[in-house]
Design the sequence.
């Protein structure tokens, strides 16, 4: 089926699993027409549909509980239970068992698209090489989280650049209008319990964020606490789009909590599932990092190396490092570059169809 047909079928399927906000979905469609990289980020369902066929030689690779919708802007920071700043993958809405190569190819393709539109300057050939090196080195080490404390100083400099002016973040949240409609009881109760103090007076707003999840309900609770703002968010979850392409029978499981718990990771104590919602703390140091927020002077090769490393951290949670490493070492030449280039070409074709 063509891209327009696939979009209609996927959105109809999604509407059977959660409430769709039509205005937000129309906004998503508008963003998809503007630039290729946002289009790519917004359409993981299409990737899940065409990747196994376009990259058929890679679809037989060992399976892992994978991110699915991995891209260059799905990385961010959070605070662990010790208050340390941690860097890694930001969300797992599309988590699903699949060949580990899926995440690497999608990440490499996203980097090429981001470079085309000015977000990154590194070439696909160099990006593919450094991603594989980071992934491979992590497998050899058995994985470890990326703690931005006494080590990983260069990564910390890149990741923490946006924290110099936290007022920008809070002004955006404060500008959100109060929600006029009802809030599900489970969400209201969960947001209240997630606050630093019980029965803290807060207001509820709706937030538009990301691209792939536009059209889903997002409730944000915002309050003043001891002289500063605090916020918690509940986002509606649905099964991964990969389960749609696989035509999984019944109601597929949502694997968000499972992939969090199994990854090599310093967990964010505020992130957890409640029913079919994901709860998290919102703050300048606890969110994804858009490429535009990175400092102008940065070591892009090092950044991508750590993206490859963190991808392996996730895969190790459900696959043996030796198994992944053995398969990876069999793949010679420019396998990642060539696969990513094919997927970029397919994405460009779909984008032209959508714009027309």
Sequence:
């Amino acid at each position: 089926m063509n891209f327009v047909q696939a979009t209609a079928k996927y959105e109809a399927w999604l509407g059977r699993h959660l409430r769709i906000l039509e205005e937000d979905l129309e906004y998503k469609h508008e963003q998809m027409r503007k630039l290729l990289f946002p289009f790519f980020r917004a359409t993981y369902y299409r990737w899940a549909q065409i990747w196994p066929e376009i990259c058929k030689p890679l679809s037989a690779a060992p399976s892992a509980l994978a991110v699915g919708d991995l891209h260059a802007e799905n990385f961010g920071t959070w605070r662990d239970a010790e208050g340390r700043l941690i860097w890694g993958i930001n969300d797992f809405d599309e988590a699903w068992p699949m060949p580990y190569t899926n995440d690497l190819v999608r990440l490499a393709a996203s980097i090429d698209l981001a470079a085309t539109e000015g977000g990154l300057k590194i070439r696909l050939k160099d990006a593919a090489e450094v991603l594989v090196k980071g992934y491979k080195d992590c497998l050899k080490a058995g994985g470890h989280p990326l703690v931005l404390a006494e080590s990983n100083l260069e990564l910390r400099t890149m990741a923490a650049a946006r924290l110099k002016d936290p007022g920008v973040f809070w002004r955006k949240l404060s500008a959100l209008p109060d929600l006029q409609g009802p809030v599900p009881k489970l969400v209201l109760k969960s947001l209240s319990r997630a606050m630093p103090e019980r029965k803290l007076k807060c207001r509820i707003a709706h937030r538009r964020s990301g691209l792939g999840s536009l059209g889903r309900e997002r409730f944000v609770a915002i309050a003043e606490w001891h002289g500063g703002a605090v916020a918690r968010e509940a986002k509606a979850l649905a099964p991964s789009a990969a389960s749609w392409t696989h035509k999984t029978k019944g109601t597929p499981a949502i694997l968000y909590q499972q992939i969090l718990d199994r990854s090599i990771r310093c967990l964010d104590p505020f992130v957890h599932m409640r029913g079919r919602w994901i709860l998290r703390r919102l703050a300048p140091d606890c969110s994804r990092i858009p490429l535009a927020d990175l400092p102008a002077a940065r070591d892009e090769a090092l950044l991508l190396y750590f993206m490859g490393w963190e991808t392996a951290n996730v895969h190790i949670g459900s696959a043996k490092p030796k198994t992944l490493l053995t398969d990876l070492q069999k793949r010679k030449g420019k396998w990642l570059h060539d696969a990513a280039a094919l997927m970029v070409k397919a994405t460009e074709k779909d984008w032209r169809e959508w714009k027309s």
Remarks:
- The mean pLDDT is 94.
- Residues 3-355 form one domain.
- DSSP finds 14 helices and eleven strands in the chain.
